[in-house]
Each structure stands twice: as structure tokens, then as C-alpha cells.
């Protein structure tokens, strides 16, 4: 099975832990068995929606109808079946990238001057933005681990070459953008492996040629934009379309196509719905077969072309589905234009006739003669006057766009025939007033008069527009409104008046607009908002007053705005005195208030105490002389506040009770202030805080975070500050931290930051933005170096020197104390253990050596007992019985170590006779001899030891000699004192003992003498 192929297993191992591989293989086999069963029953085809849905979810290509049909594009698909259902790790959040950052599971590497694709991108990202860099080549290894990537943006690079199979590992990719690069040719299998790609953008390159297999794998592609290239021939389009059965939108705008002939394109029907051929110098457009049965949108025309285009569609039914036609700039004869419009006159609803150089009136008549046309676009045609006969036949037009002309005059009856018109666009013309012609259009719902030269509004301008919902008047020169300017607009929902030089509202909004929801007055020259100015706007939701010159907000100026949720008042001249009038009283549903870039200096006032529903308050960028402190009661009443922005408000102090009234605060921006001393008590009331911005606040330490208990904090930005150390306690106090940004700070590159360096590199929970560019400010030798470059130099810091010294000292003291105790109370036992070990060591060394038995017995005795050995033992055993004995004073080799002599003697003799007395037990060398002999006895299982006691020794004297006591329990011995009456029995027993074999299991015949 495909899942068991070696190459696929290798790829699987990159993302799947070993614990899940067996589960993966089992599920993969089960699913493949399911596919085989469906194939056997001929269920596998393109029309099977269940199979299609499964494939789409699993990231597989749809199987071919033919059982044995193969595809290079699908070689990688089944291999990754169910991988990420089984073993996909959670969304990547913890890592430090060298040139990128990750936000919402999208890696963003824009404007980073990258020349190569970075390789440290987490394998779980679904989006990868590499736009605006300097990458010149896409190689096969660039995206090898990004197998769940869905969106790849390579816009605006220097890419001139794509290696074959460069995208082969991106089996989940849906969208690929390669706009604004330097591609000239798309080579063999340039998009191999992208079987799931649905959107490909290649516009603004220099593509002149396509390889026959370049698009071979793009069987699911739905949108292809290859505009602004240098494609010349139909063969290029043939190569594009032959492998894309599902392509729905094809954009080939701004190429150099000179002909478009259907028989050169394809011989089968296409699923294409949108075709954009605009800005190509097409001279000949011919369709001789029904290859576009589903085409709904066609764009064709080039205003720079000087050669007329010939239109030839053999059968009007070939384009019977086209509902949107754009022939802007098309240079053709009236006959061809008429033939063109007749081709689509059964289905056309939208027609664009922009940039038409001649026969405008005739074209409008031809267009409006098509009964189905409801949307007519007539832009950029240099119209100056709109006469009453222009649109006389356009009775069915619902939307008319006359923007970007030079219209100054519109006849009063110009739109009278267009009784069904609902949308009229007249923007970017030269109208001096609202044309009276619109008064006849009682069904208008949208009117655009923006970017004209209108200077005033009269009471009659919109008096008949009772159905108008959106009115755009921005970018005019209306200095003053009138109370009746918008009289009659009872259905108006959106009114745009921005950038129109308005200085006074004159009560225009006290009545008449009961359903207005959005009012844009920004960018004007208003200086004051008077009491009750908007009391007629009961339904208003959003009010834009920013970028005016407002200095005064009178008390009750927003009275009546009970449903208002947003006010934009930034970039005005509002002062603290203005807020003391309580201008926001009555805004019981306000959720967002923007007061940025004003002149508010904080005094002991509570301007927001009535805004109980406020969720977002922005005050950043206040301009006034001097510094101030935020009073503790400034945010009183804002119990539901979620976001507070006080960036660059010249604050020098925040009281510990500043946020007592905002317990639900989630986002706080205190950047660009002089808040050197922040305390844990300040953050105690806002335990739900998730985002904290403290850049440029001149803070010297982050220790306040360690005790702030911000357990839910996910985002921390602290750029351009003066702290140089980030301790373990600070990071550990933020268990939910996902994103950390300390750009433009400098750090101590010593052991104080060793933990932070290690955590930055290996943390899988928190992303540290731009960590690889953090620089050093101490010690002097490390200045201008990168913090993370010194990770190897800081490894020694991970060891706690003080703790190690403590452990070492304690161990030495305990060892000395234990040694002294043992020596005082157990020294004899130690001596014995020491010699026991030596005996074992010697025995281990020699027991396997086959030393010849030079002697019958080795006599082990103390020199104090030498007289008995020489006088009694030697004559009997050597003289009378004929045994060859080994005695140390006679037979030891001179110059050899005594331990070596003892060992050689014991292992060179068949037996060892130990002559034991009190003196013997006290002898160190005798002890060694008996230990070595006992090891030979017990470890080699040989009966080689004979014990002869010269004295009766009490048991308590033997108790310190553990080995000796063990021998007495298991080994028979001879006693010389007990043989005093019968010495001949003693010597006979000794002779028999010497005569027995070496088998330890042999029955021991010896018995105690004189029992």
C-alpha cells in the first residue's frame, strides 16, 4: 500500500510521533480498503459527492474513473492520509524564529530582506507570508516540512526560477501567490504535488513560455491569474487549460495575445465561469464550438489598441450564460459591437462600456435595447453633459455608473425614463450642485455624489428620496449644512460627509433621519458640537467625528443617541475642560470611544462614569505641555471595559487603584510614557488581562510582573526599555504567555540571563519575537554581539555553583565523620573486609590458571609456632610419610612480593595446612593466607584446606574472624591438644587428609580427634 512506501514513511515520521504510527497505519489501511471496495463496485467517480467530500477533508485527490489510471500528482496524497487527525500537534505557539513571527498560526516574514526561504518555520502553520523579500529561487527543500500549509504568499520577491517539484511536499496547499516576481518560464513539473491547490496567482511577471507539464498537477485549480505577463500564443492557453478540469476563473489580462481561437484552445467543454482577456491586443476573437457552456463573466478590450478587433461567434448559444460583459476600451467597428451584443442579449445583466472613444450614444442605445441589462457602467468616457436622450431606451436599467467623467451639466429629464433606477454613481465629476435630475428618481436606494465640486445643499435636493438608504457626499466643498438639508430621507442608513469642508452642522441632524445608522463627518472643520446636535438620530450606531478641529463638546451634545455604539473623536483639539462637562452622559450603549491625539490632561475627573457598557477606550497620543498622573478614579464606571489604550499620554505615575473599576480589562497599552515604577498592586484588580504593552516606559526591571499574578496574560510587548535581565521568576509567573516581544532592548550576556537564553531557544509554549536579534550591552567584550549566539558560552551558568559547593562540603564533612566513627568502632571488621577483598582479588586472578602442583601441601603458620612445625610436623610429613611441603622461610622465592609468593604457594600446592594458634589469628600475613585458601576452597569447590589447631581457642576469640567461623561450620579440623594421648591417630588422620582427592563433594572421612 502507498502508506507503507519508504518515502512516505519517512515523511510521516517528521510529523507523527512513534506512539501514533500504529494507529495511523491501521486507519490508513482501513480507508484504503474502503477505496478499493468502492472501486470494485464502480462507485468511484467525479459525481460521487460523498467520496469528494472525504477526499477534500483528507487532502486527497479525487481518484480517476479508470481503475488503473495513475497520476504523478497523486503520488504524495494518500501517503498523508489522516496524519493530522492522529498526530498533529496543537497549533504552534512556542518558538523563536530568526526572521519571522507567527500570529494566528500564520508565519509572517514580510519585509525582512530574506534571500532564502527560512527553515525554522513550525510545521503546523497554515499560512506563510514571504512577500516583499529578495528570494530569487524556489528549491525542492524549501518547504519540506510544511505539510499542512494552506496559503503561501511569495508576492514581490526576485524569483526567477522554480525547481521541478519545489512545492511537492505542500500537499495541503490551497492558495499560492507568486505575483510581482521575475519568472520568465515555468519549467517541467513546476507545481508538482499541488493536487489540492485551488487558487494560483502569477500576475506581474515576465512569463513568455510554459512547459507542457508545468500545470499538469493542478487538477483542482479554480482560479488562475496570469495577467501582466508576456504570453503571446494560443498554445500557451492550451497548456494551461488542458490539465484544469475544474478551473472556474481565468485572468489573462495585460499579456500580448493577438488572437483568440477556440479550436486552438481545446476540443472539449470547460467549466470556466469567468474569463478576463482585457488589455490584450486581440485582433481576432473566434469561437466555433461550445467550449464555454458555463461562462458567466467575460472581460475583453484594450484602450491602447489601434487595430480593430474582429468578433466571430458562430452560434449565439455558445455564450448564452454570459451575464456580465466588460468591453471597456474595446476598439471595434459598430457592426462588430452590434454582433457582440447580440451574441449575449439573452442573458446579459451587467455591461461595462468604459473608455469608449467613439459612437457613445449608439453604444448606449445598443446596450439598453437588451431587455435583460440592469447594470450599466459608463465610466471614463469624458462626458461633459448628460442629455435627456442618452438614456431614453434604458428603462430596465437598475444601476447606472457615470463616475470618472467630466460631467458638469445633467439635463433635468436625463434620468426620467429610468424609472427603475435604484443605484446611481456620479462620483469624480465636476458637478457644482446636486443635480435636479435625481428628483425624478423616486426609487433610488444608493446615490454617490462624492468627489465633485458641490458647495451647498438645499432643502429640495433630496426631498423626494424617501427610499434612499446610502448617500455619499464626501470630498466636496460644502461649508455649511442647513436644518432641512436631509429632509425626507426617512430610510437613510448611511450618510458620508467626510472631507467636505463643513464648519457648522446648523441643526441638520436634529430631525429627519430616524433610521440613520452610520454618519461620517470626519475630515471636516467642525470646532464645536452643540447641545442636542444629534438628537434626531435615534437609530445611529456609528458616529465619525475624527480629524476635525473640535475643542468644545457641550453638555448633552450626544443626547438622544441611545443606540450609539461607536464614537471616533481622535485628532481634534479636545481638552480636559471639555470632558468636565460630562459630554458622554446618556450614551448608555456606547461600546467604543476613541479620543486619540487630543489635548486631554488628566485631572481629578470622571468623564466616563455613565458609560457602563463601554468595552474599548483609546486615549493615546495626547498633546499638552508637561506631565501628569492618571487619577485613581479616572476610569470610574467602566466595569465592562475590555481594552484601554493610554499610549503616549505623558503619564509619569499610575496609582495602585487605577484599575479597581475595570476588573474585566483584557488589553492594556501603557507604552511611550515615563512609568519607571510599576508595582504588582497596580495589576492586582485586572486578573483577566491577556495583552500588555509596556514599550518605551523607561522601566529598569520587570520584577513587578513576578508578583502581579497575571496568570491569563498571553501577549507581552516591551520594546525600547532599559531592563537587561529577564529572570526565571518573571517568565514562570506568566503561565499562559504565548507571545513575547522585547525587540530593541539590550541584555546582559552573562549568567544572569542564562536561563532566559535557554528558555527562549527551547520553549514550545511561548514565541519570542525577533529573539535572534537581541543584542548585548554587558560585558564590554560582548557588546554588539547577539544574545542567542552566546548560548554555548552560557552553558556553565546552568550549574548552581553555590549549591555544588554546599553539596561538596557537606559530603566531605559527612565522609570524615563517618570514617572516624567506623575506624573507632569497626576498625577490625574493616581490616578483615580489606583483606577479604584482597584475597578475592588474588583468587579471581589466579583461580583459572593451571599452575602445576609443585608441592603436596603449603604450611601456613605463625613464626612463633615455627618450632612445632620444624620439630614435629616436618619430620612426620616429609621424613616419615614422604610428602613434599612448602614452607615460606625455606621455599619462598627471594625478591618476589610476599603476596605473590603466598598466592603461588597456595595455588601451587594440592593442599593448604593452616597451623592455627592465638598468634596465628593476630598475624596479618597468616590472615591473608587463610583467606586466599578459603577462596580457593569455596569459589573453586575444591577440598584443599586442612585446619590444625595447636591450642584450644574459645569461640569468643574467633568471633571477629568471620571467615574463620564460616570455615569451622563447614570444614572438619584437627586438634593437637586433644591428640596428646594418641599422637599416632593425629598423624594418621593428617596423612589421610593429604591423601584424599580435591572434590569438595567427596565424603569427608575426618572426625574430631578425642571427641
Write up this protein:
- The chain has 1011 residues and is an alpha/beta fold.
- Among the domains are: 2-86, no CATH class; 455-600, Alpha-Beta Horseshoe (Leucine-rich repeat, LRR (right-handed beta-alpha superhelix)); 826-995, Rossmann fold (3-Layer(aba) Sandwich), CATH 3.40.50.
- Helix content is 22%, strand content 15%.
- The protein contains 22 helices and 49 strands.
- It has a 29-stranded mixed sheet, with no helix packed on it. A 5-stranded parallel sheet has the order 46-45-47-48-49, sandwiched between helices.
- β11, α5 and β12 (249-251) form a beta-alpha-beta unit.
- The longest helix has 46 residues, at 801-846.
- The radius of gyration is 49 Å and the shape is elongated.
- Mean pLDDT is 83; it is low at 1-72, 74-93 and 1000-1011.
